[in-house]
C-alpha cells in the first residue's frame, strides 16, 4: 500500500471503532480525495466494481430511491441507475472535485435520474428512511446514519474492490455485528473479481 492508502486504512479502522473521532480525519480525507479526483478513474481496475454488481444482483425488490455514499467519480451510481431503470439515484460525496468528475462522466440519458451532491456520511442531509437502497463502494461506513436513512424493508450494500487488501476495508464480521445491533437481517456475502461485498436488509416496520 502507498502512504496515502495506509492513511486511508488507519482512518477507516479508527473511525469504524470510534465514529466520534471522524472530525480529526475529515479535512485530511477530503483533501486527499480532492487531490486524486482527476486521476481516480485511471487508478481503478476494470473489474473494480464486480463485487458491487454481484451484491446488487441479489437485492430483492427493485428500489426506486437509491443513495450511493462516497460515490467518488460516480461509477457506482451509474451502475445502480442502469440496473434499476425506475430508480432515482443520488451520489453523495465529501469531495467537491470527485463530484465534479462524477457530473462530467454522467451520460446524457441518466441526467434526469442521477444527481450528485455534497454530503458527509457522518451527518447526512436526508430524512429518516429516505432510501430503499444505500450502497457504499470502498467507503468508510457510519452505521448510525446509514441505518437511519435506509427505509424499512430496504437494503444496504458494501463492496471492497480488492477484498481484505482494499485500503478502505471493513471485515464482514464487523459489518454484521454493527448492522445486527441496529436491527438489520438477511446477511449475504459475495466474491467477484478481486473483491468482496456484503448485503443486508432492514426489516419492514412491525
Ligand atoms: C475510495 S473512494 C471510492 C469512490 C467510489 N465509491 C469508487 O469505489 O470508485 C472513497 C470516496 O468516499 C468519499 N468519502 C470519504 N469519507 C466520506 C464521508 N464521510 N462522506 C462522504 N464521502 C466520503 C471520498 O471523498 C471518496 O470520493
Shape: globular
Widest β-sheet, arrangement of strands: 3-2-1-4-5-7-6
Radius of gyration: 16 Å
First-to-last CA distance: 46 Å
Mean pLDDT: 96
DSSP, total strands: 7
Small-molecule binders here are: S-adenosylmethionine
Query: What is the helix/strand order?
Result: HHHHEHEHEEHEHEE
Report strand %: 15-25%
Number of helices: 8
Largest sheet: 7 strands, mixed
Layout of helices and strands, plus pairs?
Blueprint lengths: L2 H15 L4 H15 L3 H4 L6 H7 L8 E5 L5 H9 L4 E6 L2 H10 L8 E5 L12 E7 L5 H7 E11 L11 H10 L3 E8 L2 E7 L5
Parallel strand pairs: 1-2, 1-4, 2-3, 4-5
Antiparallel strand pairs: 5-7, 6-7
Helix pairs in contact: 1-2
Bound molecules: S-adenosylmethionine.
Describe the structure.
There is one protein chain. By secondary structure, the protein is an alpha/beta fold. It has eight helices and seven strands, in the order H-H-H-H-E-H-E-H-E-E-H-E-H-E-E. The chain has a seven-stranded mixed beta sheet, sandwiched between helices. Strand 4 (131-137), helix 7 (143-149) and strand 5 (150-160) form a beta-alpha-beta unit. The mean pLDDT is 96. Bound molecules: S-adenosylmethionine.
Identify the notable features of this structure and list them briefly.
binds S-adenosylmethionine, seven-stranded mixed β-sheet, 206 residues, alpha/beta
Amino acid at each position: 500500500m502507498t502512504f496515502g492508502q495506509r492513511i486511508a486504512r488507519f482512518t477507516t479502522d479508527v473511525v469504524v471503532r470510534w465514529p466520534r473521532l471522524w472530525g480529526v480525519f475529515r479535512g485530511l480525507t477530503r483533501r486527499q480525495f480532492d487531490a486524486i479526483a482527476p486521476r481516480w478513474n485511471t487508478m481503478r481496475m476494470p473489474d473494480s466494481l464486480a463485487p458491487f454488481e454481484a451484491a446488487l444482483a441479489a437485492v430483492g425488490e427493485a428500489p426506486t430511491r437509491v443513495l450511493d455514499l462516497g460515490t467518488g467519480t460516480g461509477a457506482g451510481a451509474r451502475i445502480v441507475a442502469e440496473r434499476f431503470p425506475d430508480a432515482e439515484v443520488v451520489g453523495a460525496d465529501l469531495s467537491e472535485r470527485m463530484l465534479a468528475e462524477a457530473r462530467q462522466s454522467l451520460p446524457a440519458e441518466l441526467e434526469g435520474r442521477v444527481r450528485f451532491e455534497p454530503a458527509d456520511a457522518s451527518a447526512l442531509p436526508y430524512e429518516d428512511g429516505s432510501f430503499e437502497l444505500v450502497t457504499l463502494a470502498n467507503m468508510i461506513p457510519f452505521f448510525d446514519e446509514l441505518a437511519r436513512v435506509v427505509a424499512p424493508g430496504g437494503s444496504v450494500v458494501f463492496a471492497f474492490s480488492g477484498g481484505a487488501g482494499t485500503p478502505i476495508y471493513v471485515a464482514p464480521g464487523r459489518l454484521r455485528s454493527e448492522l445486527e445491533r441496529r436491527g438489520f437481517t438477511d446477511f449475504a456475502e459475495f466474491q467477484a473479481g478481486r473483491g468482496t461485498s456484503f448485503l443486508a436488509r432492514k426489516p419492514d416496520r412491525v
